[in-house]
Design goal:
By secondary structure, this protein is an all-alpha fold. It has one domain. Helix content is 63%, strand content 0%. The longest helix is centred in the last third of the chain and has 21 residues.
Length: 70
C-alpha cells in the first residue's frame, strides 16, 4: 500500500470534489437569472469550499490533531 502523495491534488477525494464543483458550476449556468446573486452564488461557493478545505487540511498534516479535525 505504498501510495506516495506529493500534494493534496493527488488525493482521490480532492479530485472528486473538484470534478463535482465544476459540474455544479456548469449546471448552475441554467439557473434562473433572478437567482444569479443569491442561490446560484451560494451553491457555487459552497461547492468550491470542499476542495479548499481539503487543501487547507493538507497543509496542516504535520499537526496530527489539526489534520484529523479537518
Amino acid at each position: 500500500m505504498g501510495t506516495d502523495y506529493q500534494g493534496f491534488k493527488d488525493l482521490n477525494v480532492f479530485k472528486i470534489s473538484y470534478d463535482y464543483a465544476k459540474r455544479i458550476f456548469d449546471l448552475s449556468l441554467d439557473f434562473p437569472k433572478e437567482e444569479k446573486y443569491s442561490l446560484t452564488d451560494q451553491i457555487r461557493r459552497s461547492s468550491r469550499s470542499v476542495s479548499a478545505n481539503i487543501a487547507e487540511a493538507w497543509s496542516f498534516r504535520a499537526y496530527s490533531k489539526s489534520f484529523v479535525s479537518k
